[in-house]
Amino acid sequence: MTFVEHPAAGYRKIFETVEELNEPIPAEVTGVMPSWLGGSLLRMGPGLFEVGDEPFYHLFDGQALMHKFDLKSGQVTYYRKFIRTDAYVRAMTENRVVISEFGTAAYPDPCKNIFSRFFTYFRGIEVTDNCLVNIYPIGEDFYAVTETNYITKVDPDSLETLSKVDLCKYLSVNGVTAHPHVDADGAVYNIGNCFGKNMSLAYNIVKIPPAQKDKSDPIEKSQVVVQLPSSERLKPSYMHSFGMTDNYFVFVEQPVKINLLKFLSSWSITGATYMDCFESNDSMGTWFHLATKDPAGYVSSHKFRTSAFNLFHHINTYEDEGFIVVDLCAWKGHDFVYNYLYLANLKQEWEEVKKAAMRAPQPEVRRYVLPLDIHREEQGRNLVSLSYTTATAVLHRDGTIWLEPEVLYSCPRQAFEFPQINYSLCRGKKYSFAYGLGLNHFIPDRIVKLNVQTKETWVWQEEECYPSEPLFVPTPGAAEEDAGVLLSIVVKPGAERPGFLLVLDAMTLTELARAEVSTIIPNCHKCD
């Protein structure tokens, strides 16, 4: 695949502060919207990249902005509002960064005297509630989330902020991922790290039940389903997503670690951020953990190991003939990809952006296959007998099973990321198609469809256009897996109407329609 150059560096515009809107604005529609397509597209992303004269330094630090495109009988409007998190409200009130973010430190108020500054250190760690990463339903309600223990209930119609919820009140977790799984009945599953036995770290898979008949809050009935051990006592792995089939959970423990002692002590030293507490374990490789779903239990007998990679997004996980197939977006090696996502890096001239990406871990879409049935006498042989994959699993003398992947997509410095599938039809099932955002040296400049069986790809790309993660919406009642549309919010800096909602035919990636608005739309990097 050839990649496009961006010498004009128009991509800088997607990392710039915008104002919220007082009311929805109309969009100009060209092309033809499918008659069945209606409702609201909600997206999250950073929208405020500095407070006063203090900048936010990392891509995941900008304050949470909620976007909404409303589609009603061919008419389209766009609206956006900042979420009134504590991090945002206090920053606006004091005109400075008050709560430390992923890569930006909050310094003590210079107006306070030494004694009051000293005492703030002993109030404990102030964890951010800046919920810029995702939005998803729990029961009848919608929540904007990040990766801490705080989630924020929002009104999907008015975009008003309703309430802040501390998951620690209901569950034994220090935080959960921003990519839960949802069962057909509406139950939400997620994973977070927690303190296990003897003050060692562990990972809890948690379940929030579906909407309750008595209208009570499902979060209050949340429970831990199963606990998985950590490879290191005080250093949990960073996690961003996990795999789930009808009968199993798959958790990939990667070599990017959170040094808990550093985390706890750093907060008493000014200038520490979450990013300062990450470190890479260059010797553990990557571990795959398996747990059964019902009855829930950790499968301690299956010790899957492979070489080091970073993982943020699972694509799909399914069972087939006694194997679990795990498709994911990998970044090779143990160096943390987030080290390359500081805004100063992303906003450089194009040649400098390319140079920085040359040093970063390289992306690859991979398929790993985990055998469920393991016999001692099969030592040294490939245990994978699925006809359609070259992925292998070999039992070693020490009882570990070494995995080698099949590569489904690989192109230097060209990532297939933020993957989507036809979730309602294919989650946990054998499938053919994944849709993703194409990152060109970390800059999003195309939408890609990947056939995971044949490795064929389709691409949508337009000059000086910067799309966001595509969302697949199935055609009602259709039998084909890829019958539907992809929705993406695209920025075209310098155009008369620089932001638009793009509607693509998911089968061919040809454009059906676009709805353009006269305002720029900053980088929206996640949605559900």
TrEMBL record:
Co-factor binding details: Binds 1 Fe(2+) ion per subunit.
Keyword terms: Iron, Metal-binding
Pfam families membership: RPE65 (PF03055)
Named cofactor requirement(s): Fe(2+)
Binding residues annotated for Fe cation, in chain numbering: 179, 240, 313
Molecular functions (GO terms): all-trans-retinyl-ester hydrolase, 11-cis retinol forming activity; beta-carotene 15,15'-dioxygenase activity; metal ion binding; retinol isomerase activity
One GO BP annotation of this record: retinal metabolic process
Family: Belongs to the carotenoid oxygenase family.
Name of the protein in question: Retinoid isomerohydrolase RPE65 b
Species the sequence originates in: Echeneis naucrates (Live sharksucker)
Gene of this entry: LOC115042280
